[in-house]
Amino acid sequence: MIKLENVSFSYGSNQVIKNVNLLETEPIIIGLWGRNGAGKTTLMKLLSGLENIDAGTISVNGMTPYNNNEAMNTITYMQENHPFSDLWNVEDALRFGALFNKNWDSELAEHLVTLFELPRKKKIKQFSKGMQTMIQIVIGLASKSPITIMDEPTNGLDAYMRKQFKEALLSTLEEDPRLIILSTHHIEEIEALCEKIAIINEHTIVRYQDTEELKMRGVHLSGSREAIEPLIVSERVLEKRTLGKLISVMIDDVFSNDWKLKAKEAGINVEKVPLQDYLISFTTQKEVNNV
């Protein structure tokens, strides 16, 4: 469905995408995680044909997306602050959505507008942040494009509306399988939806992995320095804090029964690191010494 090989892109002398490789052939939900400035937005623009690559190749359903109407007809990209006209209300957005998406599902669009309780006649520019996100979700899901890309799709949503979004997304995917990319820098808000997660850091994809496998990574150890340091000699340490004779470390390994046993024998504490914390440390690595 999508294939990127050694893709690079620059704005002038500023390289923002560097040697990106990604292949996905199945209609699944992918989480695209990265910190601000990592290159998420530019990568989504390249996939949707809004920008042209400088090097490498991009294939979307077997086609190059840039300047390709046929390819663009298979892609819907809803930006975080989507550039709706200042004059548009919900009815206008639905009308244009139907015009520009050949797989448009009017019944689904109407259902989602009702579900999200969106005022049909109010100007979209006057919407709250959460309401703007909701109309973007409506367009994204009702488009039923084979490739659907949504940037920060839970931004501004309260807990109830996040639940409604997740249920609607899974329901439409079950009826019409397609590849959906959800971009975020808060992975906990979408991780339950995603079969795989792509991590973008320093302008390239550094890991693309099944979500369940990725969630098992990240081991936190705390206790005496004397007990912990022999255990981490050959491990990749992502974060390290010291306070006198005490030490706290995060290592890049799978949280396993073996680590539980090692911790018990050494008389130290061991915990599974939350996925968001692991991703932050994986893409930063830091050491803090407090004497």
UniProtKB/TrEMBL annotation:
Pfam families: ABC_tran. Transmembrane segments: none annotated. It comes from the Bacteria. GO terms for molecular function: ATP binding; ATP hydrolysis activity. Keywords: ATP-binding, Nucleotide-binding. InterPro entries: AAA+_ATPase, ABC_transporter-like_ATP-bd, ABC_transporter-like_CS, P-loop_NTPase. Residues 2-227 form the ABC transporter domain. Gene3D superfamilies: P-loop containing nucleotide triphosphate hydrolases (3.40.50.300). This is ABC-2 type transport system ATP-binding protein. It comes from Ureibacillus chungkukjangi.
